Amino acid sequence: xxxxxxxxxxxxxxxxxxxxxxxxxxxxxxxxxxxxxxxxxxxxxxxxxxxxxxxxxxxxxxxxxxxxxxxxxxxxxxxxxxxxxxxxxxxxxxxxxxxxxxxxxxxxxxxxxxxxxxxxxxxxxxxxxxxxxxxxxxxxxxxxxxxxxxxxxxxxxxxxxxxxxxxxxxxxxxxxxxxxxxxxxxxxxxxxxxxxxxxxxxxxxxxxxxxxxxxxxxxxxxxxxxxxxxxxxxxxxxxxxxxxxxxxxxxxxxxxxxxxxxxxxxxxxxxxxxxxxxxxxxxxxxxxxxxxxxxxxxxxxxxxxxxxxxxxxxxxxxxx
Length: 320
Hints:
The protein is of the alpha/beta class. The protein is 43% helix and 17% strand. It has 12 helices and 9 strands. The longest helix has 18 residues.
């Protein structure tokens, strides 16, 4: 607990709110948030979403209307969509239709100027001019650099590969992003990023691995099978199925000379999608491994490093 005279970091502030939420003490979490939120003016949008969440837990939906309005006044958008279950209680509230319309317009304008960004992690003993394998990471839905960089970390991976984290151009809300399979604009952006990487680094085109979680996993599979850039294999956690493959029965257009490593959870709501994916992989002759983790839902697995190692080993056919 923070006390007077003690410096309060945003992480500690956020952790205390999360702790109160986990205990179901939503009013105390709200009181704490409101007491110290002014210490973090640069986090206004994230804290507004936290306040909205707490009001929803306490069924104070009407109070969120003013928060959404202030957010939009500041230029933020939240992806207010009537099909999302979270927003069902708002549909009959006065002013909600106008809020959704404003939200859509802010989202549209943001998409017009957004681009896919990337951050490069070089091996600690990187030597310019030497050839390196490439590991490209696609974040999940409703994510960004800050969230995804907490994942896909493994000492062996980081010592041998050039690792690249991507952040999609496709906004989810003002500060989070997502991927969509079959997205031609995303394809074009990935080609641009890959071209820029080739200009700066010597990449082993026979050792290019793409990886992702959830929506990022789905797009990683999708772009690999469609040969958007050269891909040796993919490591994916909890993928869905690319939308074009949901109804297709002819797969002759798909690239199959790669390897795949899939991991899903026993309680993953995409489990049936993954099982259909394995049938498609069988049909095109793609070499893959698929594991289901007992007790896991739609989430990153515990001990990610173990699965990263196994995936790389399978893709590079390294049985050592």
